[in-house]
Design a protein that fits this description.
By secondary structure, the protein is an alpha/beta fold. The protein has 2 domains: about 10-245 and about 340-359, Aldolase class I (TIM Barrel); about 250-330, no CATH class. Helix content is about 40%, strand content about 15%. The chain is built from 13 helices and 14 strands. The protein has helices spanning about 30-40, 60-80, 95-105, 120-125, 140-155, 175-180, 185-205, 220-230, 235-240, 250-255, 280-285, 310-320, 345-359; strands at about 10, 15, 20, 45, 85-90, 110-115, 130-135, 160-165, 170, 210-215, 235, 265, 275, 330. The strands form 4 sheets. The chain has a 6-stranded parallel sheet with strand order 4-5-6-7-8-10. Helix 2 (about 60-80) packs parallel to helix 3, helix 5 (about 140-155) runs parallel beside helix 7 and helix 8 crosses helix 13.
């Protein structure tokens, strides 16, 4: 895919099409999707969370199964493409350190980390050339990460993803603010992080590209942020509606059928609010029903299986496999604008062409 867009440079990585495909769990952004995006010149991202769910049924340790599943996905993606492929690893995962070390050992090109502050990320990747990219929802969080990394490890982030309140899945904002629509806009958060990153760049003679995410839907959105100084943009929701995304067709059909009124904010057992598509399962939860479950994984630091009303891991796994009535289906705020299933190449060509026209 040829493009007149300026590439996204992260350290010594050159991403010819400045689009980062966001990491989506559970089992949504796997090797098939990430490699397709990378093959088109973007940055593909494998979501490490939940890759072992449903396959760890023979008494194997969750840690071992998770590491093996992530290892296999990275190797498969690398087999399918020579493009840029990274891994998203949530800080909230109980096996965050192990997954990070596995991603580094398997030569992931970059590691994106959010759902908490990845203050120890450089420690777990010491000696690895993987680029380290924290996800933040405020300039304050970005500043804390940068100061901590400088003091402990004498390094800066290789890039920063700024995720705004319109994103799908878990969101780094207060539940009350999201429901009252009083949260900060992505444009404002991005501008403040960009300014702060620029100050560190001057002091350290370094480059920290800032990548906005959350609610970016088309080339017009992309062009707007590139004009504001973004190194590139991150998009996730639109990549679900592609041929290469490995989720069930029932999952994709929910995206095609969703109206704006179907997009809701739920309270997740992770301890964060999340954006999802309304279905029978979320209606049951809203009525106060508790969905009993046993916990073979203990996958989240912040989850108390005895106290939460349902297992978010199982609900997300059900979604990717098509058990829609027992699932939580994460989606971004613009999911109602998704109208068809296309190939990754078709999607990226459309976005790039529109961005170039805008620019």
């Amino acid at each position: 895919m040829a493009s007149a867009l300026k590439p996204l440079i992260i350290g010594d990585l050159e991403i010819k099409i400045p689009i980062v495909q966001g990491g989506m769990g559970v089992q949504v952004s796997t090797a098939s999707l990430a490699s397709a995006v990378a093959d088109c010149g973007g940055a593909g991202t494998i979501a490490s969370v939940g890759l072992a769910y449903g396959i760890n049924e023979e008494g194997r340790e969750f840690l071992e199964a998770s590491n093996e599943a992530l290892r296999n996905e990275i190797r498969e993606a690398k087999r399918l493409t020579r493009g840029v492929v990274g891994v998203n690893i949530m800080v909230a995962m109980s096996n965050f350190e192990d997954l990070t070390r596995t991603a580094a050992a398997e030569h992931a090109d970059f590691i994106v980390s959010g759902a908490g502050l990845p203050l120890k990320l450089p420690e777990y990747t010491e000696g690895s050339p993987a680029k380290l990219v924290p996800i933040v929802s405020s300039a304050r969080a970005a500043d804390l990460i940068i100061k901590t990394w400088k003091k402990r490890y004498n390094r800066l982030p290789d890039a920063i993803v700024v995720e705004g309140p319109m994103a799908g899945g878990h969101i780094g904002f207060k539940l009350a603010d999201l429901r009252r629509h009083t949260e900060d806009r992505l444009e404002d958060i991005f501008a403040s992080v960009l300014k702060m990153a620029g100050e560190y760049e001057k002091v350290r003679n370094a480059r920290i590209p800032v990548i906005p995410a959350g609610g970016i839907f088309d080339g017009k959105d992309m062009a707007r942020f590139l004009k504001m100084g973004a190194g590139g943009v991150q998009m996730a929701t639109r990549f679900v509606a592609t041929l290469e995304c490995s989720v069930s067709e029932k999952f994709k059909s929910m995206y095609l059928a969703a109206g704006s009124e179907d997009v809701i904010i739920i309270d997740s057992p992770v301890g964060m609010p999340a954006r999802a598509i309304k279905n029978r399962f979320t209606e049951r939860l809203a009525s106060g029903e508790k969905v009993s479950f046993t916990c073979p994984y203990k996958c989240l630091r912040t989850c108390n299986p005895g106290a939460v009303p349902y297992c978010i891991a199982k609900a997300l796994c059900n979604a990717s496999r098509g058990d829609i009535d027992n699932a939580v289906i994460f989606a971004g705020s613009n999911v109602s604008r998704v109208t068809k299933i296309v190939s990754v190449k078709e999607l990226m060509d459309e976005i790039v062409d529109e961005a170039l026209r805008e620019l």
